[in-house]
Amino acid sequence: MTVQAKSLALPKSKMIENLGRNWYKFSRNPMSIVGLCTVLLVVFLAVFAPLVAPYPKHAGKFVDFANASLPPCRRYLFGTDVIGRDILSRIFFGFRFSLTMGVVVLSLVVPPGVTLGLIAGYSQGTWIETVIMRITDIFLAVPPLVLALAICSVLTPNLFNAMIAVSLMWWPWYTRLVYGLASTLRNEFFVNSAEALGASKFHIIFKEILPNCISPIFTKMSLDMAWVILLGASLSFVGLGVQPPKPGLGTMVSGGRNYLPEQWWISVFPALAIVVVVLGFNLLGDGLRDMLAAEEV
Amino acid sequence: MRFITFIVRRVVHSIFVLLGLSIVIFVISRIMPGNPARMAVGPRAPQYVIDELSRQMHLDEPLHVQYYYWLRDALHGDLGMSLVTRRPVADDMKEFFPATLELTLFAGFIMAGGGIFIGILSARHKDKWIDNLLRIISYLGVVTPSFIFAIFFLLLFGMALNWMPTMGRLSPGVSPPPTITGLITVDSLLSGNLTAFFDALWHLILPGIALAMGGLAQESRITRSTMSDNLTKDYIASARSLGIPEGVIMRKFLLKPSLIPTISILGLDFAGTMANAFLVEVIFNWPGSSRYGINTMLRKDLNAIAGVVLTMGVVFIVVNIVVDIVVGLLDPRIRLAPQRGE
Lengths: 297, 342
Hints:
The complex is a heterodimer.
Chain A: H1 12-27, H2 30-47, H3 49-52, H4 87-122, H5 127-140, H6 144-154, H7 159-185, H8 189-196, H9 201-209, H10 214-237, H11 249-256, H12 265-292
Helix pairs in contact in A: 1-12, 2-4, 2-12, 4-5, 4-7, 4-10, 4-12, 5-7, 6-7, 7-10, 8-9, 10-11, 10-12, 11-12
Chain B: H1 2-30, H2 36-41, H3 47-56, H4 63-75, H5 89-124, H6 129-143, H7 146-160, H8 184-190, H9 194-231, H10 234-241, H11 246-283, H12 289-298, H13 302-330, H14 332-336
């Protein structure tokens, strides 16, 4: 299959037709629908957390010793923590931090990562390719969590700096993905003909090559939402991300760790919430991959 | 002889990556506002002490000169002093890193062995109930972070059922074997202390499996898909038509080509495993470099942070060279293919 055949460069009417066909392809796998619904639910709960949470005040500094450490019951579905805050409400607010993390990191990471990958792929065989790809290798040589921890630790620990740290670690994955795509696309006929017609490098890179890379990038972004959220939760878990009393999911898991096994619900429900979010974005990403036929990701 | 070139090229490339990594680490440890010399001696030290120390630490020189001194010391095994333990970072790493290595290697074995076994099982019973069950479990394994597995395992097997130890590397009553490699299981075997060996192994199981789950699931998925792809290939069909027994086909024709992608991914997963050890060690009170790393990170102990990250980078790069060599030995297409830039 040639790569030009992929959608996006098509006229509007064709795109709507494609949309229907794509939805059919996507919805054929029930797990993709489960993923989509999970993600929509999590987004809904996060956005409307102050309205849907049973006890919105419990998201911050709030103390109610009379109701501390209650096991799950009808009033507090997921129980309360050691100072009497409703775990369920805090999880809804925790989704806010997780999604913010994912969205901000990806929007910081994708543009430079993709641009570098395009440039490196287009400049195949030149020193530009070597420099960009060797720098990418360096960043890929250490687990992202370790370098992110290191960067977080020299800055003040909070959500903002955690996002900066993860972003600094994450761009090489996009560079490598797009580099692989661009270096094959670079030798396609339509690129050669654009070159022959005297198109500028800018035009070739962003108007000819980039549109053909969109599907894999898009798929990777939805899968990466899961991994970035996970990395954020891990940073919060060791105390370098969202700081208490703010309800980060990882922060909550770590806070309840000392009360295992008697008050298991303090850790277990936020932990399950992390699994649900990660699972949702993964299933959604897998569905998108099948739909867009983006095997490269 | 081409294989030697392949290895040499791979090693040279790794040296450049390591140099680059050392620059990144150096920059990270210097972007921090504040004078490292003042942090080393404390806030109440007189100015002349700080000036003297700054000169000793080459902080009065330009940044690239500082990097030169830092790299020179690092190559001599001198990673500076830790502010937390007040000892040389290299000594700390020697003490703490073997525990992490033991745990990650153990997890690596589970990942490789278990993943390949489950993958083969899945591929042989493709689309039967056992395959479907294993695939669902694999998916959950991939999406569940290891620190959450660790908490669930701790809660279930350690606390609720009380089957397994939940803390440290050895039970309180067991005397540790003399330190030879630092890996307690290996040391106790070397010194013939079987009680310590089984006790250490027993302590490794829960954190090891928690750490391995993600990779295990990944390996089994990859083994399954490559094996079932290869099962439909012509050479398998012709082997069957020649009447070669199924078991022999599996072992002699199918296994080797099917394991190549699994082994390549194993190298990458190993990195993730080491990073996740950071979190699992905290949960199981494992006295390893990750716990040391987190303690030093929370207190902004720059030399120690740089030491931990550098050690992990070196181990990861060495593991990946080994993996590349193994893959090259298994797959002649890789070692004989023209390299990029040729």
